[in-house]
Amino acid sequence: MSNILVLGAGRSSSALIEYLLEQSAGLNCTVTVADQNPESARQKTGNHPAARPVGIALEDAAAVEQLINEASVVISLLPPTLHYKVALSCLKYGRHLLTASYVNEEIRSLDLQAKEKGILILMENGLDPGIDHLSAMKEIDSMKEKGGVLKSFRSYTGGLVAPESDNNPWHYKFTWNPKNVILAGQGNVKYLENNKFKYIPYQQLFARAEEIEIEGEGIFEGYANRDSLSYLKLYNLNDVSTFIRGTLRKSPYCRGWNSLVQLGMTADSFEVDNPGNLTWSQFADSFLPEIPGKNIEEKFCLALGLAQDAEEFKMIRWTGLFSDEVCPVKKGTPADYLLSLFEKKFVFAQGDKDMIVMQHQMQFEIKKQSENINATLVVKGDEKHSAMAKTVGLPLGITAKLILQNKIKLTGVQIPVMKELYEPLLKELEEKGIRFKN
Amino acid sequence: MSNILVLGAGRSSSALIEYLLEQSAGLNCTVTVADQNPESARQKTGNHPAARPVGIALEDAAAVEQLINEASVVISLLPPTLHYKVALSCLKYGRHLLTASYVNEEIRSLDLQAKEKGILILMENGLDPGIDHLSAMKEIDSMKEKGGVLKSFRSYTGGLVAPESDNNPWHYKFTWNPKNVILAGQGNVKYLENNKFKYIPYQQLFARAEEIEIEGEGIFEGYANRDSLSYLKLYNLNDVSTFIRGTLRKSPYCRGWNSLVQLGMTADSFEVDNPGNLTWSQFADSFLPEIPGKNIEEKFCLALGLAQDAEEFKMIRWTGLFSDEVCPVKKGTPADYLLSLFEKKFVFAQGDKDMIVMQHQMQFEIKKQSENINATLVVKGDEKHSAMAKTVGLPLGITAKLILQNKIKLTGVQIPVMKELYEPLLKELEEKGIRFKN
Q1: Which among A203, A227, A390, B169 is least surrounded, fewest beta carbons within 10 Å?
Q2: CA of B95, closest CA in chain A: separation in Å?
């Protein structure tokens, strides 16, 4: 009897674990779910006969190794920094490893050893990265077979709140790591447009977000991700002149966020001086030029050249940034302060539904004609699982099944860009309601 | 016979070396001038009988130590990173050390040892830092004696080009480390204003430059330096509600520079992709949003919301940034590219004169009345020495003389904020034409 090990039973694991337990009888396998919080593992597995929930101390290397040794396939939902150690144990015992995290140089360096051992280390096999690769490569390969060449590729993904749970002026709630949302875009953004390398500094990133209308869903804004260029090689694209990967937010999120970026409030590089009773309006005031006789709201609008009825201004006022409430944070960077401000306002409450939106905008050249293809995915959360849990977890679950069924022969460190993966994965995802519309 | 050692005979050493040689007979001392380039040392010392020019390999620790051992006072004009090693040798042989560089934690940690050895390690004893401390503390102490309390302090210094040599739209030439000028303001800027801590992010720094008119010299712009707050303690200020130290440029320099900052062209954190024949206009284009049918100049103006007759636009066009000339740099950060662009345009040519401008804007409270004092220093370069060489070098030279005359009893790691230093130093600087006007 085989065994699948799921490391980490956090909020995006529910759909994956349910799927694996559903498949367990057919696969004749057990499913071990290990989490630092054993209660979390038990909750996610219910009383399923194939389930083996366990508590585990991640720092107990021997215990983690023992679990890996007992599995045929390991799925790691742990924080990305822990994947390398898990991968080393998988190599040691010859176990396959699947994750939804970005591959890095450290993991990539294990490619040859993984091939020698005959195991697959499949990275970027969740939603974004994951379903974006699967769906893009399917379109690109299918046009290639017909003689088409990809000229332009723009792809945006957002983890958002579903319309029925959207009740704030930012049209956003935290359905994912909140600090990452606060720090989004810090770093160097690079992409390719009209055969030119383009660089966007942080202070321009949100101001330059592109407006994107998605049929039936409204107006969104897309801002570019850090480094799109590494995918040119991974997608085997030689003739593409525009290639951008980005993040989607519901309009006018980026306009509001841009005002905080401009003022430096998202900085994570120094600590705010707080005598202990700093209020939110005092915090805000620290980032504004001193203008005698003006109140905090007036100073804010003057600093950014906004009218007092500007949407950005109303969005910021809604957060409580201009209030006389004392900041709960006493020590931290400006980004830590913003995190605590927004954590109270962007609460994804019990019963709230989330939504995943992904759109590829592709332009091909085929028989000297230009052909545009837009492929759009909209997934909404339901009573049982969030859209995030479904779209991150199911690609991992389906891949684990295919491995146990001996339907995947790949070895080495890979990302899911090959037909061997995207064909069966997209087919089964469609059956689960995760379906692109052209 | 005593001996003064000058380490480094670069472009700001001339006035210092001339001064020390002038004083050598009265002090009954010799002056050793050591530089990696012996020719440089010889040129600066002429055939003066008291001079001992030597070539030295800085990596030859034994040779440097030997020179330090032979001196009574060491003046280091070496790059700041080398001062710590020099200070350790000074401690070893019990020699005094003077520099014009900022004190750091490493140097500060030698305070107790220096006191035990009875030597003075005097840092920040040039222009800025240096003359700014001397002159500010003189005003502050003199008002204190009369019962006045400093409430507000704004101090700006600029190393600029003299009006007679000013022939470009930026009113600026490189009279100091050019890469530092390109990177100026990167980091976190903090100051105190109306009893509030204020933070300025890089993207706001040049846009928020204050306009400052200096009588007889025209309109300048002052932008805040990185960290003003550490001086509150060093100046022994308890009641000040506004404290800002900053850098001066001739207007409209900051407006022009701001446009490059906004577009991300001053970044030093990633390398530009250059196929080998990148032109300046292609370099610029990489930082601009793609707008079909617009040329590079139009894209630039649209990206920044500038009219085509805007002064900023004309300043940038003058640099050659929109030209089809191939960039001489092949590998480097955006900042490296800008450096090579501006190095050709901000040339401080043979015969050009430089100018130092410093202004303290102080507000005191005395007998419940408010009193404003502006102290302004303008120094111009002459046929023999640049203003920079005079203002950086003379405080060091005069201090060395006072030490040999046994007129300074200070020991430990210090910066020149005490009467024992500012009184004789400012007096002699005045005699040399370096004089503040109130």
Answers
A1: A227
A2: 38
Contacts of B277 in chain A (CB under 8 A): none
Q: Which of B204, B272, B363 to mutate to test the interface with A (most CBs of A within 10 A)?
A: B204
Q: What is the pTM of this model?
A: 0.91
- A206: its two tokens: 């949100």
CB B150 within 8 A of CB B237: yes
Query: Side chain identity at A206, as an amino acid letter?
Result: F
pLDDT digits (tens, 9 = 90+) for A137-174: 999 999 999 999 999 999 999 999 999 999 999 999 99
Q: B287: which chain A residues are within 8 Å (Cβ-Cβ)?
A: 198-201
Q: Which residue of A has its CA nearest to B265?
A: A201
| Cα distance between the two ends of chain A | 42
Instruction: Write the CB contacts of A177 (distance below 8 Å, at least 6 apart in sequence).
Output: none
Chain B residues inside the 8 Å CB shell of A204: 262-264
Summarize pLDDT for B161-189 with one digit per residue, the tens. 999 999 999 999 998 889 999 999 998 89
Q: 3-state secondary structure string, B58-91?
A: CCCHHHHHHHHHCCCEEEECCCHHHHHHHHHHHH
Dihedral through CA B182, CA B185, CA B186, CA B188, nearest 10?
170
Q: Provide the ipTM.
A: 0.89
Q: How many CB atoms within 10 Å of residue A282?
A: 17
CA distance A275 to chain B (A): 11
Q: Three-class SS of residue B47?
A: coil
Residues in chain B within 8 Å Cβ distance of A196: 282, 285-286, 290
Phi then psi dihedrals of residue B208, to 5 deg: -95, 10
- Tokens 């204190």 sit on residue: B144
Identify the segments of chain B with pLDDT beneath 70: none
C-alpha A283/C-alpha A304 separation (Å) is 17
**Cα–Cα distance for residue pair A352/A342, rounded to 1 Å:** 17
Q: Give the number of beta-carbon pairs within 8 Å between A and B.
A: 79
Residue A124 · residue A100 · CB < 8 Å: yes
Sort A215 into a burial class: Cβ within 10 Å, 0-12 / 13-18 / 19+: exposed
User: Pick from A203, A208, A272: which is nearest to B203 by CB?
Assistant: A203
